[in-house]
Design goal:
Helix 4 links the parallel strand 1 and strand 2. The chain is built from 15 helices and six strands. Helix 10 crosses helix 11 and helix 10 crosses helix 13. The chain is of the alpha/beta class. The N terminus and C terminus are likely disordered.
């Protein structure tokens, strides 16, 4: 079977770029001039797919730290590979879970380390007490609001497990930092269909513009290729069932879960929603959908970072 025939993204051109995202990019262009650094949240399950090229372009002129958020949902061994990948490209990177207090502490320490040169210059100019101003940015649903609430120690920002909750910029102050929280933003055109799929899988694109059955089939197809045991264990599948074409596999899982309509047919839409929800809730286990590119690709990444 040709996997490409079943890939969701090759059949659907996924685009979601509402007007407020264009407005956010313009706002970021202005605000980057007034902050000391940027903190770019990426999803630890898809670090490259969640790296918005527009955000990269805007934040390139100031010190920058990448935080691989939701690391508690990702494969820990793959996350370690990603941290090495970023560090070898001379990019500051830390893996965190925004819901856990330790995540914010790790980011605080990393920000101070990344900005040590700037902070030292300030101290020399007698500005040691001045707060460090950091712009927080990333794609929709990457966990910025949850991160801010953990970082600041109180519920300052609206947090929800869906994209597009934060609509305007807001400043959040802590003892040493002023964080400028920007709304999540995508980019106008996804060059890679794999990137579009990955963003859809983790919920960064509004579900109501997607075909949920196609999404679930392709998510199943992708995950069973790299983590067959996790899918088999979750849905109690034998090897023969696990090898079925994606639609038949989804039907088999729906039948096992008793998701039937009159006449004994599987309610595939209900099954698809369940599969996507369970993946996003980490009920399949800790899964990474991307691995770092080969070393020769990394040189390009480093060059982009320096521009």
């Amino acid at each position: 079977m040709n996997n490409q025939d079943t890939r969701f993204a090759n059949q659907y051109a996924i685009q979601w770029f509402p007007g407020h995202m264009a407005k956010t990019l313009r706002m970021m262009e202005q605000e980057i001039q007034h902050v000391d650094a940027s903190l770019v949240l990426l999803d630890a399950r898809i670090p490259l797919s969640s790296l918005n090229p527009e955000i990269e372009r805007i934040t390139a002129r100031k010190p920058k730290l990448y935080a691989l958020n939701k690391a508690d949902l990702a494969d820990p061994a793959v996350t370690e590979e990603w941290i090495r990948y970023f560090h070898e490209a001379d990019a500051g990177c830390v893996a965190i879970s925004a819901k856990q207090k330790g995540g914010a502490n790790a980011v605080r320490a990393a920000i101070e380390k990344e900005l040590s040169g700037l902070l030292a210059r300030r101290q020399n100019r007698g500005m040691a007490g001045a707060k460090t101003q950091v712009m927080l940015c990333g794609i929709p649903n990457v966990g910025k609001s949850t991160f801010i609430n953990t970082f600041a120690g109180s519920a300052r920002a609206k947090a929800a497990d869906r994209p597009g909750v934060t609509k305007g910029k807001q400043w959040v102050s802590t003892e040493k930092f002023d964080l400028l929280d920007m709304p999540g933003v995508l980019w106008k055109k996804f060059d890679s269909k794999t990137i579009a799929s990955n963003l859809a899988f983790i919920g960064s694109i509004k579900d109501d513009i997607l075909d949920v059955e196609e999404l679930a089939m392709n998510l199943l197809d992708e995950v069973r290729r790299n983590y067959p045991d996790l899918v088999a264990q979750r849905y109690k599948l034998d090897a023969e069932t696990l090898a079925l074409p994606p639609y038949e596999l989804m039907e088999a899982i729906g039948r096992k879960r008793g998701l039937l309509v009159r006449g004994g047919e599987v309610n595939t839409e209900r099954c698809a929603v369940m599969l996507v929800d369970e993946f996003r809730a980490c009920k399949w286990g800790r899964i990474s959908l991307e691995r770092p590119p080969q070393r020769d690709d990394m040189a390009d990444f480093a060059e982009e970072d320096e521009e």
